[in-house]
Amino acid sequence: WEIAKWDPRYRRLIAGAVVVDELRATVEKELGYTCSGGIAENKMLAKLGCGLHKPKQQTIVFPCAVSALLHGLPLERIQGLGGDLGTQVKEQLQVSTASELAQIPLERLEFTFPGKGAFLHGLATGTHNDPVQDRELCKSLSGSKTFVGRLALRNMQESERWLRELAGELHRRYCEDLAEHARSPTKISVSVAWGTGTSAETQRVRSASEYQHLYQHASRQASLDLGRNGSVDQIVRAALACFQRWAPQTGSFNITMLGLSLSNFRPVFAGPDSHAPLSKFFGAQSSSA
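Above: the chain's sequence. Below: its structure in token form.
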């Protein structure tokens, strides 16, 4: 066949296969991993295709091959039908394969499984289009510590000690987040609660208004650029600067809660560093896929 005469759908799949092949080669070169790939018009078919030829191979599922791929395919092999729903479908419709399920009229599917008829038909025919979505990342890294009764922080020395403790914990999580998601926070916030409430009084609190009568809250923020090599000391210095903007001039505190958070993330490989090594997105080497 001449590619120029092919259906655009086929040409897009071939272009995708070239990209996947280059990506697999780069992964193996930089990380030592081998992996398989599936290229199709939707995520479901791509996953099925990926499992056909392993290891270290890839499969294109062309539209003309979908019916053959699904013919006789056990329902439990289809994502979404491997659990309770799949068991109910097999029992109530007396089917066990995708091709058998595809023969059931849509009206009967909807009657038997209200609200799921089109979904089941799409799975059986390979037309269900479940979009690929990015994982939703947390918007902040935060930690806090409460100090009730006699444990309340009374001075700058005690407060600085706990800010360092919190900063150390957040720095560890920042490093993990950086390695996995290639992003860095640009804002730091320090939260403080203070008051005269004793441990016994706190336990007797029954409403928000009573709590607010005993304790007050404040927060201070500042810009922070940890980038790719942020240190614990950098977080501590920024946290202390925020804290000192709140701290009473008397130097006498009664802090019952101290919190620290890092937020407003941005990619660290933007601009001239956009071509980051793949190793930044993977953990320790594992066995071949």
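The first helix runs from residue 8 to 31.
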